[in-house]
């Protein structure tokens, strides 16, 4: 069953290729959605996929890539939006 999660990742997650690494993980797990920088030290992610794949993705978000330092991850369920792929939103925050 398709599930939607809103994920906010805090810490040293900007300027360290966190969003690109999140896309690689999402693509490998068959997860669609988006990742974008937010104000302060956080990245916002919307992820849609099967529950088991989403759990693996959230577990990865808690660790991040080798250059990031994740301090906190918040998740919440939302309504599926029907994403077809995982996209990194380029922003200049």
What gyration radius follows from the Cα positions, in whole Å? 12 Å
Q: What's the count of strands?
A: 5
Distance between the termini: 35 Å
Number of continuous helical runs = 2
What percent of residues adopt helix (DSSP H or I)?
Answer: 25-40%
Series of H and E elements: EHEEHEE
Based on secondary structure, the structural category is alpha+beta
Q: List low-confidence stretches.
A: none
Return the CATH class. Alpha Beta
Share of β-strand residues? 35-45%
- Strand arrangement, largest sheet? 4-1-3-2-5
CATH structural architecture: 2-Layer Sandwich
Query: Number of folding domains?
Result: 1
Report the sheet with the most strands, covering strand number, pairing sense and barrel closure. Answer: 5 strands, mixed
Mean of all residue-level pLDDT scores = 95
Shape: globular
CATH fold annotation: Alpha-Beta Plaits
Structural write-up:
This protein is α+β, with helices and mostly antiparallel strands. The chain has one domain: Alpha-Beta Plaits, CATH 3.30.70. The chain contains two helices and five strands, in the order βαββαββ. A hairpin with a 3-residue loop joins β2 and β3. α1 packs antiparallel against α2. The mean pLDDT is 95.
């Amino acid at each position: 069953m398709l599930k939607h999660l809103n994920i906010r990742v805090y810490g040293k997650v900007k300027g360290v290729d966190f969003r690109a690494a999140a896309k690689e993980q999402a693509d490998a797990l068959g997860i669609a959605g988006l990742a974008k920088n937010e104000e302060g030290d956080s990245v916002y992610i919307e992820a849609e996929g099967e529950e088991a794949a989403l759990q693996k993705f959230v577990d990865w978000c808690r660790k991040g890539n080798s250059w990031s330092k994740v301090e906190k991850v918040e998740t919440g369920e939302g309504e599926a939006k029907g994403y077809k792929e995982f996209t990194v939103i380029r922003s200049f925050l």
